[in-house]
Amino acid sequence: MENKTHTSRCFFGCNSAEGFHSFFNFLPDMDNAKMVIVKGGPGTGKSTFIKQIGDAFTKEGYDLEYQHCSLDPESYDAVTIPEIKSIVVAATGHHVYDPRNPGAVDEILNLGDYWDVEGIRKHRKEIIEINSMAEGQFHKVYNQLKAARLLLANAEIISSSALNPSKMNIIEQDICSFLPAAEKMERFGSERNCFVSSITPFGEEHLADTIVHNNTQIIGLIGEPGSGRSTLMKQIGKKAQLKNLVVEYYHKPIDPTIIEHIHIPEAEIMVTVQPDLMPANNPMTTYNLADCANTLTRAEKSEISSAKQRYEEILGDAIESLLYAKNTHSELEQYYVPYMDFDSVNQKCKDVVESLRQHATIFN
User: Which SUPFAM superfamilies does this one have (predicted)?
Assistant: First the structure.
């Protein structure tokens, strides 16, 4: 039988100009949600644990969302099963997340319960040294990302000075015409904020295409940094929420104040600054925001081009530093993996699957 489940993907958090950033925003509505928080050191099996949970519920026909690790995009930091409001999330280091309702619907698992403490302690000195080296590298990465962000701001200043608000308003009204009529205007729709792109040790990774379905209408916004795309999407999103629609806001990794995409699931609409990354077979409408701006001089265009080029160069430097930080941090695994009781971890995973099945009964 064909598996018709849908798996969407995003990032738990991102390396930004201001450091590691996460919204910890797993579902638009967390009422009656069950969250399992998995703690443990590097190499203790958190990502595998999360994948096994996802595999079990995929086989049972549930749609999933995997949240990937920005330091290692092949690894998972969380899995969400929206239909039964269940989340399993790794929480270590900069992934720290505390339960909202401890002892009620939330559970904390420490994979450290399944390791040989004495075996790991023999390598205490090496572990401390590696952590210190990695921390220094991450500080370097964030300084480089901050420098890159400042260069991008130079381009934004020029573009924003040429904006024509009245022409932008026409495009906003046109895009809002894609929204369905509101059924319950007295309610304001929920919102969710997260990342679907990330700056990783292997370059920029984009997963926005996994969010959309075959019939999702793609609305592309073409323009330079500062051309008003983020502001436009925020305004469209708020108008959708006024129609009691849930809106998912996807933020730019280097600067989370900037919106790159908004997804309105009930309306089957994705508004994006990266239409070229969307599935080619989806219906698509594009708007060029250069049509909403006053004409730039040749010198202004040259300055924008120069700022973008230098931005890409420094971003490349940050990615190289991030790879070095990842490789340094990965050295920690050799001091944890040999001392883990993975058979007990796997059994605990089966127990969690069963507890989530029990939780699912309240939605049946």
Answer: P-loop containing nucleoside triphosphate hydrolases
pLDDT in tens, 105-124: 578 899 999 999 999 999 99
**Residues 65, 8: contact at Cβ < 8 Å?**
yes
Domain of residue 254 covers 164-293
Measure the CA–CA gap between 2 and 214, rounded to whole angstroms: 16
Q: Work out the percent of the chain whose per-residue pLDDT is above 90.
A: 84
Q: Does the residue 18 lie in any domain?
A: yes
Task: Report in angstroms the alpha-carbon separations of 243 from 31, 180, 182, 188.
Answer: 21, 8, 5, 7
Report the alpha-carbon distance of residue 117 to residue 313 in Å, rounded: 44
Reported pTM: 0.92
Average pLDDT over residues 292-306: 93
Q: Is the pLDDT of residue 92 over 90?
A: no
Distance (Å, rounded) from C-alpha 53 to C-alpha 271?
Answer: 31
**Residues 6+ away with beta carbon under 8 Å from 353:** 52, 53, 56, 57
How many domains, in total, are found in the chain? 2
Residue 355 is assigned to a structural domain of this protein: yes
DSSP string, 300-326: HHHHHHHHHHHHHHHHHHHHHHHHHHH
The letter for the amino acid at 134 is: A
Residue 25, in any domain of the structure:
yes
CA distances 57 to 8, 51, 211, 287, Å, are: 14, 10, 19, 39
